[in-house]
Fold each of these.
Amino acid sequence: MALRHYILDFNLSAPADYPSTVRGLQSIFQEQEMTETVHDTEGHGYLATFIGKNGRFLLLRLHSHGLVTLDLQCCEGDNTAQVDNLLNALEKKMKSLLHGNIRRVKRLPALTRGAAVDRYWPTADGRLVEYDIDRVLYDEDSAYQNIKILHSQQFGNILILNGDVNLADSDLPYTQAIMGGGKENYTGKEVLILGGGDGGNFAEAVKLKPKMITMVEISFGSLRPVDVLLQGFVMSSPWFWFWTHMRKTCGSVLDNLTGDCYQVLVEDCVPVLKKYVEEGKTFDYVINDLTAVPISTAPEEDSTWEFLRLILDLSIKVLRPTGKYFTQGNCANLTEALTLYEEQLGRLSCPVDFSKEVVCVPSYMELWVFYTIWKK
Amino acid sequence: MALRHYILDFNLSAPADYPSTVRGLQSIFQEQEMTETVHDTEGHGYLATFIGKNGRFLLLRLHSHGLVTLDLQCCEGDNTAQVDNLLNALEKKMKSLLHGNIRRVKRLPALTRGAAVDRYWPTADGRLVEYDIDRVLYDEDSAYQNIKILHSQQFGNILILNGDVNLADSDLPYTQAIMGGGKENYTGKEVLILGGGDGGNFAEAVKLKPKMITMVEISFGSLRPVDVLLQGFVMSSPWFWFWTHMRKTCGSVLDNLTGDCYQVLVEDCVPVLKKYVEEGKTFDYVINDLTAVPISTAPEEDSTWEFLRLILDLSIKVLRPTGKYFTQGNCANLTEALTLYEEQLGRLSCPVDFSKEVVCVPSYMELWVFYTIWKK
C-alpha cells in the first residue's frame, strides 16, 4: 500500500506572526481530531506535527524568512475527497489569515510513494518527473543491467535500463536521429549497428533496403544464452517476452538472428570491431547505440571514457572514407559531458570532424544531443 | 530562502521489525545530534520525527504493510555534501539492517520548495514535472490572466498563462501543428487567426506569403490599451517587454499592428466573427489558438463549452467550402475532454468532418492533440 504525500506551500512578503497564524489554523486541526506536537527548533521558525485518523500525518512549518510549508501524508486507501477538503480548508484559512501577505500559493500534484508501479523516473539532468505509467510489463536483472518495460498511457511501452528511460514506442525521433536525421540514403549500403538491443534502429534500417546490416549486441544473450543460440526466440526465452512488449519498436525483424540483408551477432562488439579492422572490412554507416556519454571525469568514470574512446577509434577505422558514424551524446543540459565527449573526438588515431543535432525524444522529457562523425 | 526536501523510500518484501530497525538507525541520529520524538499512531505503524541543527527536520515512518519512508527537510543554505552524506548513511544502514528484505530503494531528486524561481509546472493531465527554469523574465497580471515568461535552459523562454505552459522557444512543432502540420499551401490565401498572442503562428504564417492574415487578439490591449492604440509597441508598454522575451517565437512581425499582408485587431473575436458572417466575408484558413479544450462538463464549465461552440460555429460559417479550421485540443491523456470536444463538432449549425494528430511539443512534457476541421 502506497503513501500519498500532499505539499502546500505559501510564499509570504513578510514573515507570518506565529501565534496568530497557528491559532487561526487550530480549529481545522481540532475538527480533524489531530493530536498536535509543537517542536523546539532552536530558533528555526515554528514547527508542529499532527497525527490524525487512519495514519494521517501533517507537518506545519512557519519559517522565519516568510515561507510556510505544509506536508500531509495519507495512506493510499484514505478518502481522497476528504483529504482534498482538508487541504482546501487549510488553503482558504491561510489566505484569510495572511491575506495581502501571500505572494504565491503552490500546491503540487500529490506524490505517490512506495506504489507497486513507480511513476518517477528522473531525467538525465536530475529533474523530478512523473510519468503516466500504469503497468509493469517486464522487470528482470540481466548479467549487465536491470531491464524494465513499463507501460505509459501516452508513450506506449517504455524500456528502462538501470533506471534510465531508454526508448518508448513513441520515440521514432530517437531512431531517426541516430540514423542521420532522415538525410541519409541507406539503399545498397553496408551498415554496422553497435548495441541497440531494443531493435528500433535495426528494424528501421532494414526497411531502407541496405545491402547488409550487421548488429552486434551482447545483451541479447545475457539472460539465457541457450535460447539465443537456438537462433529464434522461443517462448521460454525472457527475450521473447521482451520483444513481445517492444514489438511496436522492433517489429518482427528480430524474431530471427539472420535474414536476407541482416545478421545479429550476440557478442561483445570490441573483439568484433578488432577483427574487422584486421580483415580490412569497412562500412558506409556505423551506428553506435550502446550507451549515453558518461557525465563526468571522476576516477570511476575513467574506464568508461577509455572504453568509449576505444570503440570510437575502432569504429572510425572500419568507416569508409565517405562513411558516417552516428551516436547519441547526452541530454542538452549536460554541457560539460558533451564538451568532454567532443574533446575525445580530437584524441582519436584518425582525425575526424563532427556535427551535432538537438532532438526532442517524446518520452525523455528533455532535449537530447546526437552526433554525426566523419573522417577528415 | 527555500526549503530542500529529500525523499528516500524503501519497499520491503515483508514488514520491518520496528524495534530492531529503529535501534539500528539510532546511532546515525545521535551522531547528527537530532532530538527524537516518537508519536502514537494508534496502530498505523511506527512514526518518529527528529529535529536537527540548522532547521533540519527528519521524518521516519515504518508502515505496517512493508514500506519505510524517510523525509528530510533542510534550509537552502544547508551544506548539501553533509546532507547527501546523511542520506547515504541512512540508505546504507537500512540496506544492512534489512538486507534481503528490500525490494526497491527510491531516492527522488530533492524538491525545492518556496524558491524565488518556481520549477514545478504540472502537466495538463496533472503530473508533477520539474522544469530547468533558472530565471523569471516577466510576471504580470493582465485583466484576463497571469502572464509569466520564464527561462528554461533547454527550451528557451517559456510563456506560462495562469500556471499552464503555453509555448516556448523550442515549440515550433506546436506552431506547425496548429497551421496544418506543414501539409498546407498558404501562398495567396486569406487567413484568420483567433488568439495566438505569443505571435508564433502569426510570424510563421507571414513567412508563407499569404494574401492577407487577420489576427484577432484581445489580450494585447489588456494591460495598457493606450500603448497598443499607438500602433507600435513603445517601450512603456508591458507588451514591449513581453515581445522582447518572446522574440525567438514571434520575430519582429508584431512590432507593428499592420503590414503589407497582415493586420492585428485588438478586439474580442466574437463580434468580429459576427460582423464577418453578416458581411459574407470568408477565409481559406481559420486558426483557433485561443485556449485548450475545457477538461470537464462540470456546471461551471458549461459557459466555457458554450463559448467554445459559439466560436466554432461562427468560424465554420466564415470558412470557404474548401477551407480548413485548425485548433488545439488538449493533452492526449485527457481522452474524456477530447471526446466531449468531438461531440460538440456534431452539434454545429453546419455539418463538419475532422481529423486529429498527436504531436510532441517539446516544452509540454506530454503529447498534445490537434484538430483539422472542414465543411462536409
Amino acid sequence: MVTAPLTLRDVSESELLRRIFPFFRASPGVAVGPGDDAAVLRTGPGTVATTDSMIRGRDWLDEWSGASDVATKLLTQNLADVAAMGARSTAVLVTLVADPATPLDWAVDFARTLGEQAADLGVAVAGGDLSSAPDGVLMVSITALGDLDGRAPVLRSGARVGDVVAVCGPLGRSAAGLALLQSGADPRTQPDGIRGWCIEHHLRPQAPLTEGPAAADAGATAMIDLSDGLLRDGHRVAGASGVRLALSPTALHGDVAELEPVVGEQALDCVLAGGEEHSLLATFTGAAPDGWRTIGVVEAGEGVTLDGAVQQPRGWDHFRA
Amino acid sequence: MVTAPLTLRDVSESELLRRIFPFFRASPGVAVGPGDDAAVLRTGPGTVATTDSMIRGRDWLDEWSGASDVATKLLTQNLADVAAMGARSTAVLVTLVADPATPLDWAVDFARTLGEQAADLGVAVAGGDLSSAPDGVLMVSITALGDLDGRAPVLRSGARVGDVVAVCGPLGRSAAGLALLQSGADPRTQPDGIRGWCIEHHLRPQAPLTEGPAAADAGATAMIDLSDGLLRDGHRVAGASGVRLALSPTALHGDVAELEPVVGEQALDCVLAGGEEHSLLATFTGAAPDGWRTIGVVEAGEGVTLDGAVQQPRGWDHFRA
C-alpha cells in the first residue's frame, strides 16, 4: 500500500513549527528567537538589513532545484548583500508562503538546510513567517541582518577616479550553468570539472562572504554584490559614484576562456551579463587585496567600457526579462 | 482612443524604483536608505525584528481591497508585532513579488501609502526587494525593526498566577467586517457607525502601537498581538507561561453586544476567535493601566477558560483554514 506524502494541509501551523524550530540553533546574538511575536537581537550601533525572495517558476524550477538547493541560494543571495556593505551577517528572518498542498518534506528540508548552513556561517535563524498561498504558489524570502563591527559601510557611491576595479569570486558560472541546464544537462552533474562547477554555482551558489568585511578593512571605496550581471551592477556603481568603470578584456580573458568549453561563443556574454553570480565587485585606491583580481580602472566619465567601447547595462531586469 | 494602463512590464526595474523611492522619506535612524545592497540602521543594543506577508487571493481580494488598503494592513500587522514586544518600530523593509502584468498604479499606490503612513508613525522605509512572479501572483511582505529603548522585551512567557488579563483595542471587529463583506456589503461603506467601523477595521486595521511600549513601562508581564483570535493567541500566552487564562464573560459582554447588531449570533464567535484584530493582549501584576480593559485573570492550570469552561484554541490556522 502506498500512502500519499504528507502536505502542509495535513499538519497544523503549530505542528509544522514544532518540526522546524529544532533546526534553528540558539545563538549568543539572539536574545529572543523564534516563537514570540518578534525576535530580539543584541545589536551594535550600525545594523545592516536587506531582504531578497525567490518564487517557484521564476527563480527556480522544481525539476532542477530541491528545497535544500533553494535554501542555499536564498541564503547566499541575502548574505552576499550584507557582505557587500562590509558587514558580518548575524541573523536572518525567513518567510515561507506556500500552497497548503506543498509537501511537508519540502518545508522541513528547506528549514533543515537553512538552519544548518546558517549555523555553519555563524548566522542565527531568529524568526520568520509562515503563510498559505493560492494553488501552486511557493515563495520563500529572507531578511538578513548584519553588524558592521564599527566599520563604515562600503557604499556603491564611493568609487573615485584612479581606483582599481576588482572582483572576488568567479564570473559567468551561474549563467553558464543555467545555459547547460536549459540545453538538457542533468542537474545532478557531479561538480568535478568546469561543467559541474557551473551547474553547482547556478543551483547552490556560494559567495565570498568573509571577503566583504575584509575588503572594507583593506580600504574598499565602493562595493556591490554581483547579482544582476557585471555590466548592470557595474553601471550601478558607476552611476552612484559619478564615474566610469573601464574594464580590461585582457583581465577578463581567463574568465571567458574558462567558460568557452562550456558555452562556446556565449562565454563572454556570461561573464559580462550573467546574473546570480554573487561574487563581489569593489574598487580600491591602490592595489586590490589578496583574493581579488583587478579587472579595470575607474576613469572620469560614466557607465562601463570594455577595451574603451561603451557597454549597455545588459543583465537581469525583473519585470522586463 | 483608450490606452491600456501601464503595467510593471512596461517600465524597467530602475524606472519603477525611481517612481517609488521619493515616497520613502529620510529618517535620522537610517544611515543608508533604499538603493544600495542593504540598508544601514542606527541601532540600540536591543533590536526587535519581525516579518509578515500578504498574498492576493488568501490575504486579500482585489474586489474589496485596493493597494492602499493592503499597505495599511500589512504595515499594521508588522508594527503590532513590534509593539507587542514592548518596542518602538523604527524601520521597515518592504518586498513586492508581482506578476509583470500588475498595473504600475498598484505598485505606486502601495508604495505611496506605505511611505506616508510609515512617516506618520515615525518609521522609516529603509529598503526592500522587487521581484517578478508567475501569472496572477501578487505578494507583499514587510520586515519591521524596532528599538526597545532600554526596556526588557515583554514575552509571551511571563504571565504569572494572580495577574490580570487585559486587552487594548477592539475585539471581533475585523471578523465581523469580513462577515459583512462576505454577505455582500459594500467595501466602501462609510465608517460612521459600527458596521462601517467593522469593515474599516477589516480592510484598514489600526493597532494601538504606542500602548505596547507603554504597557511594558507599566509592568506588563506578558503580551501578544491578537492576530489569530483571542482564544488561539490566549492559548499561546497560556502555553508559553505555563498558566491558564480565565476569561470573564461579563467583561466581554460589551464587545459581544457591540457586534450583535452587525453579525447577530456570530458576535461571541467573532470576539473569541476572530483573527486580524491587531489589538494587544497583556497580563499585569495588579491593575491594568489606563486604556486597557481587564477581561480575566491568570490562574494555575493550562489553556483558556470562559466562565470556567475550557475553550479550544479556535482561530486562524494558515494551512488548515
Amino acid sequence: MIGGGQLARMTHQSAIALGQCLRVLAGSASEPAAAVSPDVVLGSHDDLDDLLRAAEGAVALTFDHEGVPLDHLRALEARGVVVRPPSAALQYAQDKMLMRERLAKLGLPVPAFVDLSGDVAAARAALIEFGAAQDWQIVLKAVRGGYDGRGVWLIDGDEAAALAAFDAAAGGDTVLMAEQKVPMARELSAMIARSPHGQGAAWPVVETIQRKGQCAVVLAPAPGLDPETAQRAQQMALALADELGVVGNMAMELFETVDGDLVVNELAMRPHNSGHWTMDGAVTSQFEQHLRAVLDYPLGATAATSDVVVMANILGAEQAPAMSMDERLHHLMARMPEAKVHLYGKDERPDRKVGHLNIVGRPGQSLDDVRERAERAAHWMSHGVWTDGWDPHEGEN
Amino acid sequence: MIGGGQLARMTHQSAIALGQCLRVLAGSASEPAAAVSPDVVLGSHDDLDDLLRAAEGAVALTFDHEGVPLDHLRALEARGVVVRPPSAALQYAQDKMLMRERLAKLGLPVPAFVDLSGDVAAARAALIEFGAAQDWQIVLKAVRGGYDGRGVWLIDGDEAAALAAFDAAAGGDTVLMAEQKVPMARELSAMIARSPHGQGAAWPVVETIQRKGQCAVVLAPAPGLDPETAQRAQQMALALADELGVVGNMAMELFETVDGDLVVNELAMRPHNSGHWTMDGAVTSQFEQHLRAVLDYPLGATAATSDVVVMANILGAEQAPAMSMDERLHHLMARMPEAKVHLYGKDERPDRKVGHLNIVGRPGQSLDDVRERAERAAHWMSHGVWTDGWDPHEGEN
C-alpha cells in the first residue's frame, strides 16, 4: 500500500486476519502504518524508483491516498505491476475536473461546473461569467491534491473573495474549477467495493456531518433516508465503479438536496473516513473488503450488525489538553466501556485526525442516544473536556 | 508479550487500535506474531537474558503461553519488571498440581486427585490405590507443559495402560498427577479479565467442544445453560482471579456434570481459544481486553453482540489438501460472505491450529444453522472437502 497513514495502518490490521502482512511505502518509520507493520519501504510516493521498490514481489499495489502522480502509475503498469485501482480509474479520483466531465457524460447528477484551467485571463473571464450566473453561490476547488477541506473555497455570494482566491491560486500554479453551490439538506456517502472480476458490494448509505470542511461524524445508516433513494445511491456508485473499472473500495460522496435529489460531490477510491463505522458495525469492515477486492478474493457481507452505528473523529485541539491522550483514553474507557476507539499513533495538531471511535447501538437504543455518546466521547478525546455531547439543533437555520 | 504465536499475533491487532505496537519475544522471525509486528526480539522464553531484553523499556510484560520458567518470572519481578499476570498467580496456570491443591483449599469444586510426584515407587503405589478406588476411571496429566491434549492420558478403566503411561513418564522425568474422570455432560469455559485495580469483567459462559483432546468448536453463549449456573461459573472465575491476584485474561475450563454441577478442569491466564468468538461476537474482544488489563486501562464491555456465535478452529489435515490454503479461502469467501476468518500464517501440520473462523448469527438464525455453517466452513478450510457440516448427534451414546 502506497502511503503510511491511518488507512494503511488499519488495512494492516485486516491483512493480519487474512494471514497476510501489509507492505507499506512510507515517508518515515514513525508514520501510522510504518509503526505497526514490519514490512516498510521508506521512500516517497512521488519517486518512481521508490514505488518500484515497494512493488517488488507484491501481488498488487494499492493506495491510502490519491497522491501518486498519474505518469508514475502508468509507468508501473507498463512494467507489469498490478495497480488497483488501475490508473485509468484512479485518475478520476485524482482530478476533480476530469471526474466532473466523465460523470456528466455518463448522465450522473453533478452540480453545474466550469473548467478554470489553461490561459489565466480566459479562465478568469469564465469564472466571472459562471459566478454571475450562479449569483456567486459557488465553490472553488483545486482540481488536484485537496483533502479534508484543503483546496476548497466556499464563496458565499462574494464575487471579490472568489476573484481573490482565483488570483492567488493562479499565482501559485494551482489549477481550479468552480461549481454551483448545491442547496443541500445533508451529505451522504455511498460506499462500495468492486473486485477485478466485477463483483460489487455496497454498504448501507451513511450520512456524513462535516465541520470545518472535513468529516466529523458519520451516522450509519443515514437516518430517515428513503429506501429508494438509498438504493439509487448504491446503484449509482456500483454502476460508476463498473464503468470506470475501479478495483477496491470507492466512496461516492453525495449531496441530498432540499428537494430529495442526489448530486455527486466527490469520489475516493480507497478506504474512506465515511467507512470507519464498518470496523465495529458491519459484518465486513472496509479495510478487509478493500484487501479482498485488491487481492481478488470474493467480497464479504456488507450488512450492518446494528440498527444504529455512529462514528466520530478524534481531532487535534487548538490548544493541547492538559491531560495526555493516554490519560484521556483511561477516562473514556471508564465512562464508556462500550466505546470502540481506534488511535492512529499520530501527534496531535489542530484539527488533525488522530483517531476515531465507534458507538454501536444495542437493541432499543435511539440514534440520538448513540450519537450523543459518540460525540461526547470524541469531544473528550479531542479536547479533554466533557460536554453534554452535541447540539441536536446544530446547523438549523 | 512473551511468545510469538497466534495469541500474540491477534493481540497485536488489538494493540494497533489502542495506538500501540506490541513487542514480541519470538523464537524466529517467521512465527505468527513476529511476521506482523515490527517490534520483535528474537530469543527464547527459557533464557533470562532474552526475557530481560524483551522487557527493556516495556510498560508491562505478558504471555501468549505458560512456558516461561517460574524462576525467571521471579527474577524479572525482582528486577522491577511489571509481570502480568504476576508469577504468584501464573504459577497456578503452570502447575496443575499446585492449582488443584489451591482450588481445593479455596473450596472450589475439583475432581478427586492424587499427587504422583516424588519417589517413583511411592507415587506408583499412590496411583494404584487412587486408580483402584476410582475403578480406573481416571485421567493422568503431566503437571507441567501440557497443552491441546498433549500431556493428558485418558485411562478408560485400563489399569495396565495407566501403569504403562506412568512408567514411561517417570522414565522421561515427566511429573504426573491423576484425577478422577468426571461424569460430564459437556465442557464449559468461563472467561474473565481482571485489572491491576481489581476490576473484573466476565464474558458470557461458552460451551467448548473438544476433538482429539483439543478445542475444536465453541458455542457462545453455552446453549441452554441455566442462568444461575452461568452466573455461578462467572463468579467462581472472578473470585478465583481476585484470590490469586490474576492480571489479564483468565479462562476457567469447567465440566458440567450429568447432574448439572460444575467442576473446575483447567486454568489459563492469557487470551484463550475459548475466547476467539469475542473477536467478532462481543463488544470487546479478548485480545483488546487482555491489553486493557495488562496496561491498566478500565475494562471494556463484554456483552455478546448476537444471540448465537460459533467459533470453529481450522486445523492442519492428516493429508495436505490438493488446494492451497489461499485457494480454499477464495472458495469459502465465495460460499459464505459472512464468515469471519482469522489465519495465523502457520504451515499446515496434522491437527495443528492454523486459524479459526467465527460465524455470528443474525436475528432469527438458530444455533444449529450457525453451527452447521461454522463447522462446514472449518472442515473445508482444514480438509479441502465440503461436507454437510457436523453430525448433530455427535457424541451421543
